[in-house]
Design brief:
The complex is a heterodimer of chains A (340) and B (358). By secondary structure, chain A is mainly α. In chain A, 74% of the residues lie in helices and 2% in strands. In chain A, the strands form two sheets. Chain A has a two-stranded antiparallel sheet with strand order 1-4. A two-stranded antiparallel ribbon of chain A has the order 2-3. Chain B is built from ten helices and 14 strands. Classes of the chains: A mainly alpha (340), B alpha/beta (358). Chains A and B meet through helix 4 and helix 14 of A and helix 2, strand 7, helix 7, helix 8 and helix 9 of B.
């Protein structure tokens, strides 16, 4: 119920007054408090190198979160993204180490393709198998990881086997902005606009708000759903390429457990798990917040045993704050409706 | 409502039944194990001049398959078994959980192997099965991670805790130029081997010759690339005067090196620790890393196979002071509790790194 109302309020959300009511406000506040607190204690936290590190660390997670957000908005979930990242990273790393002359664009395209195929498999199983996405993607999580394990065996692709230009891609920049960050910004921005301003985007929100109503309204649910999973898979595949370039060491376990971080970023970013509401740029902010938390806790010298508990508490806190905002929006909307 | 209740009851009683059965199985195994332990301890005496038997069936059971490090270890074992003219076999689970190895050991017993070389995922979980194997006259050698000492005949220790701790501090001291701040980037906060090494390092650092070295922090990267990256970044931000990061884990040292090699800390902060030459080659060649150390994992498997063959041939029984020859590695003497120490870790530098491929 609230979900549908919030969606309605999306359009005016970017005006100054509207911004105060958005679900993303909580994240921006948390982010600001965290950064200020850490920077006061350790001024080096705001040095150029440090900001660059944080943005680079966020890039991979943000790319995956953008795809995941689209899937979650349709009231589904894609748990296979960590395994897709692993499969794509290993495919691309192996390809680049055996054909060092291939250009970077080939690596990116192959990664996208591997991910797209994996995503399509998810979509087909969810739509035509009529199985909940949670179960399907839990299955493919193990399946894709299994394929990578049986293919890789115990092999590892190391940094010295990868071509220079491939590794340099992770740090090279255009006009001072690293490629990785640029890609993440383009992906998050592009998908945000698609979801906000285009027909297909609004249809995806409608599907998440009420699947039955969407079908009855004549929305091409099957096509849209396949598209959402394909996008999530392809972006996870792209993230695999970025992972390989950034870390330089790839074995079969690359990206193991990433799916939970991605889902956390999306949820913290204000995308409701029941679908129909939230924004892609919010998910991008969620990814940024989780990364800043990781970096800040490392700098603040907080006991390792506490770190995970703190991350968990911050997730709960972000969700509570988000819930408060949602309730306030719902109330003000109801008031406005009664005046009409 | 009533039906669900009924179903619940059935499920509950079924699970009780299973529990009961499992408990029974446990007791049988336990009693067998205490018998087996006793039987294996007594009797046999060593004959150093016995001829090494040919055609021995030697099976390797690492912690898990598909682990790059385990693969190198067992590849050394394969070479040794070839030299010994034996039959090499490699089995193992896909996950390193405590109980996953038990069914493999039982299968190996049925296949009547002569030697089982095992890296135990849990020192106690594999014990009952290993003792059944020893009762069936199979010799058990543990490597990498020891099984409880009353259920194996010998243990190949890659290096003593003391030796590793000492060599880590020695390298850090050389790289820091004798004075300055150092930090440790470890794996998980509760990893037994890591903590033991760190403990030795702290004792070493307390010695007068290292009085100018100051350990400022121990960070934990959880053996995860991204987390280790972030922890390395955190160390460099929190301690501007940091000279050396010592990372006694292969994931940590690679992540820290990759980070430093691509940041403006390159050349100002040295990285050292325990790493795999293939993984580190890139950073040694670009000057980020001057030197790091590791035992040769292939030698562990190699030594384990020879120890197993010596046991099966009756040359040794696993008692302290017994000697045997392990092919190209030379002569080894068994230490207390059946431990055989491989030797000091090898140091890798830009000069020698290309001689190693693992």
């Amino acid at each position: 119920m609230t979900a549908a109302l919030v969606t309605k309020s999306k359009r005016p959300a970017l005006s100054a007054g509207g911004l105060m009511k958005t679900r993303e406000l909580g994240i921006i506040l948390a982010l600001a408090i965290l950064v200020i607190f850490t920077a006061v204690n350790h001024p080096r936290f705001l040095s150029g190198q440090s900001i660059r590190d944080i943005l680079l660390n966020t890039a991979i997670l943000a790319v995956m979160a953008a795809g995941q957000a689209v899937v979650v908005i349709t009231r589904n979930i894609d748990l296979s993204v960590g395994s897709v990242l692993g499969l794509s990273a290993f495919t691309v790393a192996t390809m680049m180490s055996t054909n060092p002359d291939l250009p970077m664009i080939a690596a990116l395209l192959v990664g996208l393709a591997v991910g797209a195929v994996a995503g399509l498999i998810n979509g087909v199983l969810v739509r035509y198998g009529r199985v909940p996405a949670l179960v399907v993607t839990l299955g493919t999580l193990y399946m894709f990881r299994g394929i990578t394990y049986s293919w890789a065996g115990g092999q590892q692709v190391n940094a010295d086997e990868l071509p220079r230009h491939f590794l340099r891609f992770a740090n090279a920049s255009v006009l001072g902005v690293p490629w990785l960050v640029l890609i993440a910004v383009v992906v998050v921005g592009g998908v945000s606009v698609l979801m906000r301003n285009y027909r297909v985007g609004r249809e995806l929100y409608a599907m998440g708000s009420s699947p039955q109503a969407a079908e009855l309204a004549g929305i091409r649910v099957a096509r849209n759903l396949l598209g959402a999973f394909l996008l999530s898979g392809a972006l996870a595949g792209l993230a695999g390429v970025l992972f390989a370039a950034r870390f330089g060491t790839v074995d079969a376990s690359a990206g193991n457990g990433y799916e939970l971080t991605v889902v956390a970023a999306v949820v913290v970013g204000g995308v409701a798990v029941f679908g129909g509401s939230g924004t892609v740029w919010g998910a991008g902010l969620g990814a940024l917040l989780l990364t800043v938390i990781g970096s800040a806790l490392a700098v603040l010298d907080i006991n390792q045993f506490w770190q995970q508990a703190i991350v968990g508490a911050l997730i709960l806190f972000a969700i509570c704050a988000d819930r408060l905002v949602a309730v306030r929006i719902a109330r003000s909307l109801r008031k406005r409706d009664s005046h009409v | 409502m009533l039906r669900t209740h009924h179903r619940l009851l059935t499920a509950a009683s079924a699970s009780l039944l299973v529990l009961g059965l499992a408990a029974c199985g446990g007791t049988t195994k336990d009693s067998a194990s205490s018998d087996g332990g006793a039987a294996a301890q007594t009797g046999a005496s060593a004959d150093p001049n016995a001829k090494t038997k040919e055609g021995l069936k030697i099976a390797f059971l690492p912690k898990q398959l598909n682990n790059p490090y385990s693969d190198v270890e067992t590849s050394g074992g394969k070479v040794a078994v070839g030299e010994l003219k034996g039959e090499y076999k490699l089995v193992g689970p896909n996950d390193a959980s405590a109980s996953s190895q038990v069914s493999y050991i039982n299968t190996l017993i049925q296949q009547q192997q002569d030697v089982i070389v095992v890296a135990a995922n849990d020192p106690n979980a594999v014990c009952p099965s290993l003792n059944q194997a020893r009762q069936a006259k199979i010799k058990v050698v543990s490597f990498d991670s020891d099984a409880s000492k009353d259920c194996r005949d010998a243990f190949i220790n890659q290096a003593t805790t003391q030796g590793i701790g000492e060599s880590l501090v020695k390298m850090a001291n050389e790289l820091a130029g004798g004075e300055g701040e150092i930090a440790i980037l470890s794996a998980t906060p509760n990893a037994t081997n890591q903590n033991a090494w760190i403990e030795v390092m702290k004792k070493e650092l307390a010695k007068p010759e290292y009085s100018k070295l100051k350990l400022v922090k121990t960070a934990y990267g959880n053996d995860d690339d991204q987390k280790s990256f972030q922890e390395a970044q955190g160390l460099l931000q929190s301690y501007p005067k940091l000279k050396v990061i010592v990372s006694p884990t292969t994931v940590g040292i690679a992540a820290a090196s990759r980070y430093v090699s691509s940041s403006n800390y390159k050349g100002k902060v040295a990285i050292t620790g325990l790493g795999l030459p293939n993984q580190m080659r890139e950073y040694v060649k670009d000057g980020t890393v001057k030197k790091f150390a590791l035992w040769n994992p292939a030698d562990i498997g190699y030594l384990a196979a020879y120890a197993g063959a010596a046991l099966a041939s009756g040359q040794i029984t696993g008692k302290q002071g017994e000697k045997f020859t392990a092919g190209k590695l030379g002569e080894y003497t068994i230490g207390a509790d059946g431990e055989i120490v491989l030797g000091p870790p090898t140091e890798f530098t830009a000069q020698n790194i290309d001689q190693f491929n693992f």
